[in-house]
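Bench notes, bay 3.
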Amino acid sequence: MTDAERSPEKTHYICQTYVETKAGRNGQPGLKIAKQFEYSTALEAKNRAEREALSEDCAGADAYMVTEDQTSGEIGDPSFLIRLGNVPESDDF
């Protein structure tokens, strides 16, 4: 039996980018998810977020990790590795 088969948890490393949306009723522009990439290491996700944040059409980028309970399918709260540019409040995540 491998370690992966014994452990009911799996860690996902995500890079997520945002673009600004048009101003809503309150006159404030919002954010929406533009792209999402999954990587096998934290460093890969962080490096991609740094590259994406330099893009002209990117408002901001996050790199984070979440743990999935493979038995129940539940996903834990994100643990941010890096947050760049205009990103949502972590409470909104």
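Next record in the batch:
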Amino acid sequence: MAYDSPFAALGNTHDTGEVEAQVGAIVHAFAPAHDLKRIAGAFRLLDKAFAGGLSGYQNLKTLYHNRGHTNEVVLCAARMLHGMHLAGQGLDADHIDAALIGALMHDIGYLMKDEEAGGTGAQFTDTHVLRGVEFTRTHLADLPPGVLDATTRVILLTDHRTHPDSIGFDNLQQQRAAYATATADLIGQMANREYLERLLLLYFELQEARIGNFLDVHDLLERTSNFYRGTRTRLDQDLDGVSIHLMQHFGRQQGAERNFYAESIERNLEYLERVTKMERQRRLDYLKRGGVVEQVLAMKGEN
């Protein structure tokens, strides 16, 4: 199937049921006998937790790090695992589970406990990865010890300030699982069709977390290209450039050996460059996807 837009090739990440079905189909494309029970259990736990149905926890309130972001990461991670398998770097069953459960749980640390009054959870940006590890060890304690241990290492590497050498991987399978998910976390969000609009929501999270010292949303937009240059270094060097294997996945699944994530990111950055060259008062008129601008203006009392 040929795609005029790389965004179309990435599919719909708003519908969690569709994402879960795609993840299962991708896994079975390269591991037909794989039991999806553990992954399905993690999806159900996340459904319950994010909706506020988990005892002792509030519903998820962060604006940017929401269910849609988790969906795009786990779907990208599944595609990465498929491509790695085709390139002769496949994972065994336990580490497939660790990579995908880690993708699902990597931002669960933004979830607030009942006693944590005030804020959206974004105030835990600096510690959300460690909180996610604690949550996973508590609520997925029935996983086999080796799978649980590998899953926590996967989550730890999604802290993009963390160098892989500091994790202490036990084996190459653990490392590959963590590299796949940490890579998916970065490129999954930046390739999203609504990424530029969602940066406006990220600004509010960073402001609440008191991170980045951004003067306003325009400052964040103007500094995003530099952020991506740093991201490219992490992807290519720290994470061994595993995103290249997405080409094998799309070649097998969609008949086109193209990295639709890289193409989508390039389109986003090209459009961002055009937008940031405009006068500030005109920029939001050119960021109309997903109703995000309207949401932001309503939050600022400017609608």
